[in-house]
Structure formats: C-alpha cells, structure tokens
C-alpha cells in the first residue's frame, strides 16, 4: 500500500518536473523586482509569497472562465532564482498531466493584471510576465488641447491691445487735424485783416518810406484828450 | 509744418533698446557652443581681444553715424556720400531677410510655451503607438524630446525636396508672433521705448533664477569643471580666433541698420561713446553669464544620462544572469563585469553588443548649438527637474523676450528708412506702413512652417546675412574713415558729445577693424570655395537621427540669390548715382 502511494507520488513529482521547466510548453517566466519597487520597505521572497502567487494565478484562471476549477495545487513553480525570477505552468485538473494552453493563461492574467500587481504591491514594470505584453494606459487627453486654450487667451489680449492702440491713434490724429484746421482758419482770418492798398500790404508800404499826409488826423488825435 | 523727429523719452530707453537688440538668442545658443569647442575658459582670451579690437569701435561708429545724421540707414549713408546709398539699401534688404526667418523662432518659442501648461510635459514621454502595446517607433529610436521637436513641432520631411504642406499649428503661432511684433512697433519709439524696458530686463531675471536652480542641480558641477577648464592649446587654432571675431561681429548686430535707426531717435547731444562701451560690455557679459547657466544644465543632463545608462546596463546583467537585486551597483560594476565575463564567457559574449560603455565625458562632449540646444537639450534637462512646468514656462518666456527684442531692432531697421523717405513716409501713416511690412513678412514666413521649412530656415540662417554683413560693415568703416574723412567725423563727434575721440578709437576705425573684417571675409570666401558642394543635415525618421545630404540645384540658386541681392546693392547704388549725376550734368550743360 505504502509502496503504491510512493510510486504514484514519485510519478506525479516526475510528471510535474516534466511539465514545469524553463521553456516548457505553455510555461511562462516571471521576473520580480521587489527592491526596485519598494526600496527600504522591500519584503523577502519566500515560500509564503510563492503560495500567494499560486493563489493569485488560480484566482485569475477562475475569474476568467467560470467553468474553470483551477486549484492552488494546479499551479506549479520552478527554477526560482535570486533575481527573483521563476517559471510557472498551470496544469489541467480534469485531464491528467497536461497543461492549460498558454493563450488561456495569458488572457486570464491580462484580465486580472491589476489585482495581481496590487496583491504584491508591485507594478507592471516590477512584476513582469515575460511573454505577456501589458496594455499601456493612454495619457489623459482633455477634449480641447491645452495649448489652444492658452493660445486663444494670448491672441485675444494682443488683438485687443492692437485695436486699442490703433483706435486711440486715429482719435489723436483726428483731434490734431481738427486743431490744425482751426489754427489754419485763424491764420486765414489774420491774413484777411491784413489791409491791402493797391495790392500791397500796409507793412510793406510803411517800409517804402512813404510820407504821412498831415491833412488826415493821426490815429491818436481822433479821441479828444481828457 | 515740419514734423519733428520722434525721440526716446530718456537715454535709458535708448540703452535698453540697444541691449534688447544685441542680447539675443545668439548669446544663449551660440556662445556656449563656441566656448566648448575652442578651449573652454581659454576661449575668453580671443573673445575679449576681439571685443576691444572690433566690437566696441564698430558699435561706436554706427551709433555715432545714426545720431549725427538723424536718419535711417539709407538717408544716413546718402548724406555721407551720394554714392553710398546702396549701402543703406543693402542693410534694409539684409534686415528684411532676417526678419522673414527670425520670427519663426519666436513662433516655436510660443508653441513650447503653450505646451508647458500640461502635466506631464508633452516631451517628457513618448506617445503610445496605435495598438497601445508600446511607444511610437520613431520615438523609441530617438529620445522623446527629439521626437517632440522633429515630429510634433516641425513635422519635418525627410529632405528639402519633399516640401509637404503648411502646418496650421505653426502658422497660427507665426501669426501670433507677428501680431506681437506689430503691437510693439505700432507707435514707433513711443511704444518700442516702453516695450524694451521689459524685453531687456526680463531675460536677466530668468537667467538669475536658472543660475540658482542650475548650480543646485545634481551633476551641474561636472559640466562647469569640464567646460571651463581652459584648453590653452586651442588658442593656436586659427578657427578659435575667427570664431571669436565672427561671434562678436554678429552678436552685436552690426550692419543691419538697426543701430543707426535707434541712434537716429536720440537727442543730438547724447553721449553715444559711453553707451557704446556699456552696450558691448553688457552683451559680452551676458554671453558669459548665459554660458555658465548652459554648462550647469549640460552637466546635469550628462550626469542624468550617464546614470540612466549605468542603470540600464545593471538591469541587463541582472536579468540575464538572474543575480540578486542590489548586488550590482555603479561602483562594483566593472569588477563584476570582468567576473561574469570570466565565469560565463558564452552568455556574456552574446550580451556584449547590448552592453554600452557608459562614459560621462562622452555625454559632456556632445556639443550642440542653435535650435538643437535651445529646444532639445534644454527641454530634456527641464523635464527631469522638479516642478518642470514652472521652469519650462520661465525658460521659453525668456527665449521669447530675447527673440522679440531682436525683432524690434530688425523691424526698426526696415521701417525707419521707409518712414523717413518722402515717397512712402509722407503719404501713409506709420501704423499702415508697419502693418504692411508685418503682413508681407508673415505671408512669406509661412514657407518656414511647411514640412521642409526647417531646411529653408537653415539656408536663411547660414547664408542670408553672413557675407553681406561683412561687406556692408567694411564699406561703412572705409566710407566714414576715408570718404567722409576722419577729421570731419572727429569734429562732428566734438559738436555732439563735447569730446574728440582719442587715439584708440581712431586707430581701430582706420586700420584694425577694416583689416579684421577683410581677413574674415577672405576666410569665409575660401571656406565656401574649398568645401565645394554645400550640404545640410536632414532628419531621417527611420533611423531616428540626422543625416547629411546635398542641397539640390534650386536651393543653391536661392542661396546665391540671397547673397547677391544684398551685396549687389552696393555697387548698383553707386552706379545709379553716377548715371543720375551724369544725366543731370548733361541736361544742365545742354540747357546752358
């Protein structure tokens, strides 16, 4: 009885060893960088963490397909290194000694990547599944690009400044024109009051050494002195 | 009634206008490059010698001519001798070419400024590819900052021949840049005089903030030590002296007519000798100051890249050999590499091509100038700082102030002769003339917003102004010293500032500066002739780096046209005046 049990166990162990080895079919390599992610708060990778990992993979498989009956014992880990990196494979409990196809495992892990990451306090970069590419989250893009908004504000300010300067310039120009036309009118009036005698202005006549006719009274004698 | 010439409100406005014009992008992006290439701290020796031999005398000459003649460049040179009207026209043509392409830089600065109000900065990370499994290919091959510059800003085409379409985003920014310039020059000196207070002083505030931030960055000291250790053997390289002379010459903006235009709005008794010395000293000091900031930024960026490279190598080795995390550090990396090479020779040999030799000197040695430095290197450094949005906004605002300050000078050089002339200046108000000039420049500038626009920009940047300016300034100096006469010029200066120029100025004007310019001119001509075909750097998207290509025939024709358009004005102007005088003499003789 005992011998039979031993035989079965050893067969299972050998089978498991066959299923989980580097570059085996449907096996995935995982690389974990705890120190990079957590620095001083880094935890050590030991058997308990491995147990959690197996649990998370089983959880992912169950969540992905409701028909799935994956147990923790179905997830096999091997070749754990100091890095920390290891290979894992998921066996099918219904069919003996076979592994779940890689595509199914990949889809399951992809779907639950966030949950797996947060269980270990890691991110996509520090918990790497080497054959499973992660979908990068797109950056947040507002509906109108930010630069257009700033551009619009600056443009409005500049155009307002230009319009203000041009309008005030035109107003100043008009005022100056009005002033200069007023002054010109004044000069014309002054010119009109310049008296002309035979086509010659009076100042010129004075200069021509004319004689003052004594018959006509001088200006200041028109007014009788008091 | 004679319209009195508009004046600056006070001499300080004039000094600020000159500083704002002279201190431009060249101080920030050209001088640090030259310093790095030609011997670090030792480059200051030829630089200061050229400042004294060439910079100050020529600056004083232009300011004095402008202040004495009280006209723009065309009128001023016509008054010195009627045969020299071509010199003024050449200055206006060169200024026109410059204003066409220079404002595109302001458009780029606006673009980066508007994009700085996001978190994270758009050039900090690569965009995702279409199925969101990784980053864009082109961005993976190069860095995210280079991708943002070449693809998202310029959307550059692979060569000059593939023109592509006008990029509407860049066209919008260019229009905005021209509107800003129009706003500043709208009222002539009344508006320009107020704007230069801001454009001259703000860059210094930002530079001081950056100096403090730069010096406190991790790794900045590496940059400063590396760049400033003088390599005195470079002083024997003639290229160092030629570069120093060229840098002083172009940095002060001589020959464009802007300085003459600014000085023409001065009171006749303004002390332009003192102002010339002040402006040239401030210009050179700013260059040195800006290079301290740039080198500390270089040091930070180089140290950051070096440490990233080391970390990548460590990760590669850890993953390949499944070693424990933390067993490889930067200090024990080389010993561990030897150990691994000895114990696992085959696997190590397989990895060997991927393991890069990280070197801090190689990172520091990458010398960059021009738009590459301003927009790629700086934005890369900024994205790694804390609160990058703040530093980004400050930096691009400073670039904008520097660029607009120089644009004010350029447009003044074009507008002053136009408003002084009787044909145009008397008929239209200056708002209309400024508007038309800005509009024409904006429309032509749309060429530089096409996909191949950056290649045309490089053509204009390298060839539109270099040879022509040397010739213009040479003719100016010879005209003032030998045609106008240095004694007559002395007397004019005595009437203006009450003091005759001493022997230093006279010797520089009459002998040293013309000789220097002639030697620069000969050097450039021989350089162009010896290199044969001219080449340019094109961006190859498939490789993610710049490749060298030859200019096509029509591009060479455009280059020739640019140089000829301005240089031919000088002899043509003299010829036309000669013909006109001949005709007048014949007419007078036939009448008499």
UniProtKB/TrEMBL annotation, chain A:
It is found in: Cell membrane. InterPro entries: Collectrin, Collectrin_dom. Keywords: Cell membrane, Glycoprotein, Membrane, Phosphoprotein, Signal, Transmembrane, Transmembrane helix. PROSITE patterns: COLLECTRIN_LIKE (PS52010). Its main location: membrane. The keyword Calcium does not apply. Residues 24-226 form the Collectrin-like domain. It comes from the Eukaryota. The keyword Transmembrane applies. It is a single-pass type I membrane protein. GO terms for biological process: positive regulation of amino acid transport. The gene is TMEM27. Pfam families: Collectrin (PF16959). It comes from Lepidothrix coronata. This is Collectrin. The chain crosses the membrane at residues 146-170. GO terms for cellular component: extracellular exosome; plasma membrane. Residues 1-17 form the signal peptide.
UniProtKB/TrEMBL annotation, chain B:
The chain crosses the membrane at residues 12-31, 43-61, 82-102, 168-190, 202-228, 240-265, 277-298, 393-415, 436-457, 463-486, 507-526, 554-579. Pfam families: SNF (PF00209). It comes from the Eukaryota. It is a multi-pass membrane protein. Keywords: Glycoprotein, Membrane, Metal-binding, Sodium, Symport, Transmembrane, Transmembrane helix, Transport. GO terms for biological process: glycine transport; L-proline import across plasma membrane. Na(+) binds at residues 22-23, 27, 251, 283, 402, 406. The keyword rRNA-binding does not apply. PANTHER family: SODIUM- AND CHLORIDE-DEPENDENT TRANSPORTER XTRP3 (PTHR11616:SF44), SODIUM/CHLORIDE DEPENDENT TRANSPORTER (PTHR11616). This is Transporter. It comes from Lepidothrix coronata.
